[in-house]
From TrEMBL:
It comes from Heterodermia speciosa. One of its GO terms (molecular function) is adenyl-nucleotide exchange factor activity. This is Nucleotide exchange factor SIL1. Residues 1-27 form the signal peptide. It comes from the Eukaryota. The keyword Signal applies. Keywords: Signal. One of its GO terms (cellular component) is endoplasmic reticulum.
Length: 433
């Protein structure tokens, strides 16, 4: 009997030991390990999300600290920097205007010090969008087919264009129209369609120049034109063509866009207005001929005067300096102005065929080639002197901005510092040649 009891006790002990191997120290059976670790920025469980992005067939926003598995269709909004991704499912053959990125597994360095600021998608509110450096941009190397127009957008766009052509429209209506069209023209299709219209394009430059108009109205015209041509080579070529066509009415539209910008830099004093002027200048100077003309016509000297001018205690003065520093960094520091390969450059002039339905998807533009004489090459010695003047200006501005604590001054200091460092490297490399 005792032997049976002993055997029973030994059996229970064995079962207890076996169970203990599955039970934690707190007596609870552990749950299976989660397939994906979570990131919890707050103490609320509802704010947690997977550390590795979980793709579906629909685009979803990717958090900054999420890892991305390979083989996804990724797009980025260049205006906001927001990244979205989904499974790489087959689509229609049309190429969309999204920035399509394929990330190489374990190759993208996500540390902030390795992220380069590039001056794309610049608007008056933000100039640089960070893009990781080890990414491959896919798509056609030249012309990108835009997504089809939305019917509602087409009606809104055509109504806005008719408002700008309407000589009896009120300033209030025109201001509202500028805002509506500016929002649409972030899409390359609408930017191109707007700049193909010679009357509207020339009207925008005319309003920008008209000192009798309210600054907000003139500023809105500059912003709309700059948005339409920004990162849109076809729209930029179409816009410039209207001003280099020998047949256009010089007596009504006496100034080309770049000349209008130079006049504004010389005579205007409002920081808010000048911020949008610099945005328009930056958009125009994506064309190398316009950039060369800007330097040849003393634009760097005019811009330096604006940069060094006292703009009062308001934050817009510091913001303006930051925008100017970004322009110098993006367009001037690496400019070398090589000998042109030919004596003339062709722009495309677009004339609208009134017999076609303006709401039609079918393009109905007659393309006429016009030519523009390329300006001389900037004097190398004068250009280097310009750069040294800017180095001194950046040094002084950096010192002044470092004493301020506002958000605008901090952002401006970062822009000035980036331009200053790049400029010093440029000058040092030239000195060592």
């Amino acid at each position: 009997m005792l032997s049976q009891i002993s055997s029973y006790i030994n059996l229970c002990a064995s079962i207890f030991v076996l169970l203990s191997s599955f039970i934690g120290s707190d007596g609870a059976v552990p749950s299976p390990k989660a397939s994906t670790e979570l990131i919890c920025p707050t103490l609320h469980a509802s704010d947690c999300y997977p550390s590795t992005f979980q793709p579906t067939e629909e685009f979803q926003i990717v958090k900054d600290d999420q890892a991305l598995p390979p083989g996804l269709h990724i797009r980025m909004n260049l205006a906001t920097g927001i990244k979205e991704a989904r499974l790489n499912v087959p689509e229609h053959e049309d190429v969309h205007s999204d920035l399509v990125i394929v990330e190489k597994p374990d190759s993208v360095d996500r540390h902030p010090e390795h992220i380069k600021n590039v001056g794309i998608g610049d608007q008056e509110e933000s100039s640089n969008v960070p893009i990781p450096h080890d990414q491959t941009v896919l798509g056609e190397s030249s012309r990108v087919r835009q997504p089809p127009f939305e019917p509602g957008e087409a009606a809104t766009f055509e109504h806005g264009m008719s408002q700008l052509r309407n000589s009896s429209a009120t300033i209030s209506d025109l201001n509202a129209t500028l805002v509506t069209l500016q929002d649409l023209c972030h899409s390359g299709n609408w930017g191109l369609k707007l700049t193909k219209d010679s009357n509207v394009t020339q009207f925008l430059v005319h309003i920008f120049l008209d000192v009798s108009q309210q600054l907000s109205f003139r500023s809105g015209a500059a912003l709309l034109l700059a948005t339409a041509i920004r990162n849109n080579p076809e729209a930029l070529a179409a816009a410039l063509a209207h001003f280099y066509n020998d047949g256009w009415p010089i007596d009504i539209w006496p100034n080309q866009p770049l000349e209008a910008v130079l006049l504004a830099l010389l005579h205007e004093h409002s920081p808010k207005f000048l911020i949008r002027t610099v945005f328009l200048l930056s958009s125009l100077c994506q064309d190398q001929i316009q950039l060369r003309k800007f330097v040849m016509e003393g634009g760097l000297d005019h811009l330096l005067q604006v940069f060094q001018a006292e703009k009062g205690v308001e934050p817009d003065g510091d913001k303006l300096r930051g925008k100017i520093a970004n322009f110098i960094l993006d367009h001037i520091i690496q400019a070398d102005f090589p000998e042109p390969s030919k004596d003339r450059v062709e722009y495309e002039t677009f004339t609208y065929d009134e017999n076609e339905n303006p709401m039609s998807q079918q393009e109905s533009w007659i393309i006429v080639d016009e030519s523009l004489e390329i300006p001389e090459i900037p004097n190398p010695k004068r250009f280097e002197k310009n750069l040294k003047d800017w180095e001194l200006a950046f040094d002084e501005s950096r010192r002044v901005l470092s004493k301020k604590k506002t958000h605008e001054s901090v952002v401006a200091w970062e822009s000035v510092e980036a331009a200053r460092e790049a400029l010093r490297k440029r000058l040092a490399s030239k000195a060592n040649l």
